[in-house]
Amino acid sequence: MKKATAGALIILFIFAVIACGQDNKSSAVKAATIVEIKASSTLAHKDNKYALIHLVDGKTDTSWVEGVEGDGIGESVTILLSSKTKIKSFRISNGYWEEQYWSQNNRVKDIMIISDTGSSYTHTLKDTPEQQTITLPEEWETKEIKFIIQSVYPGSKWRDTALTEIIVEGAEKSNVTDIVDASPEASTDQPEVAGTESEDAADKDKQAAAAKESFPLTVWAEGFTFTLYEDGKVTAEGYGMAQCDMKFVEGTWDYTDDDKKLISYIVLQQQNCFDYEDDLPEPDWKEVALQTLIE
């Protein structure tokens, strides 16, 4: 009887060890998922076109856009995981996803990443729409990751800063419907909206006007021979019409509402041309911003 009882106990012990091992194994392979995400601000849109959830939806045809006035320096996104996870790298798609708006909106240049233990790392992103990898100098074990915009690549038209996607390497892909957006309400006081319907209509009008032109387009004005390019850039040759010489530095152009061309450019203007003598080794130049309207 005692032998039978001892044998039964040994069998039960073996089953308990096996079951425990299976439980530990299943818990060990279970990766963390994203359960919550929040942003310090989000640009308002009636159809939630710039919603924060776009940043973790696994798609490259949606984007998040910050919602404060200016370039969004200091704005942040925080990702909360279901459990502490060892993290070594992230994948980021920079800027606004639509090709026609990508260069017109700000892109993130320097981004600071902070863990819930206080570890931090600042990385300079490339100015490209292609997905890029950020590798931490050492592995972090963290449940919360915060991304802070430190500087931007300026957009050619808008000052809204956008990100298309953030992927946390080491975390399992989450169902978007399971992720809670804990952000404050989207900003409504931002006049500069990336790709709104009114801006889209204006862009279409400008594109129609541009379709009638043959680029590059050369025009003469204010003592310069300007060359206008289809992407909005301007180059120039000449010395201006001022009594003192001017040196063209850089410029851009755009259509006005009545289809005229407005050239905005910077020149270096010689300040001491009247008293420039041999005893002055170099002329004195001053940077001046100018605009010229082409009929």
Topology, please?
Elements: H1 2-29, E1 34-39, E2 64-65, E3 76-94, H2 99-102, E4 106-115, E5 120-124, E6 132-153, E7 161-168, E8 180-181, H3 197-211, E9 217-221, E10 224-228, E11 233-238, E12 246-255, E13 261-270, E14 285-294
Parallel strand pairs: 1-8, 4-7
Antiparallel strand pairs: 1-3, 2-7, 3-6, 3-7, 4-5, 4-6, 9-10, 10-11, 11-12, 12-13, 13-14
Question: What does this protein look like?
Answer:
Strands 1, 2, 3, 4, 5, 6, 7 and 8 form an eight-stranded mixed beta sheet that branches. A six-stranded antiparallel beta sheet has the order 9-10-11-12-13-14, with no helix packed on it. Helix content is 16%, strand content 41%. It is elongated and about 75 Å long. The chain is α+β, with helices and mostly antiparallel strands and 295 residues long. The protein folds into two domains: 34-191, Sandwich (Jelly Rolls), CATH 2.60.120; 205-294, no CATH class.
Number of domains: 2
Terminal residue distance? 110 Å
Assigned CATH architecture of the largest domain: Sandwich
Which oligomerization state do the chains in this entry correspond to? single chain
Q: Features of this protein?
A:
295 residues, alpha+beta, Jelly Rolls, 2 domains, eight-stranded mixed sheet, six-stranded antiparallel sheet, 3 helices, 16% helix, elongated
Short structural description:
With 295 residues, the chain is of the alpha+beta class. It has helices spanning 2-29, 99-102, 197-211, and strands at residues 34-39, 64-65, 76-94, 106-115, 120-124, 132-153, 161-168, 180-181, 217-221, 224-228, 233-238, 246-255, 261-270, 285-294.
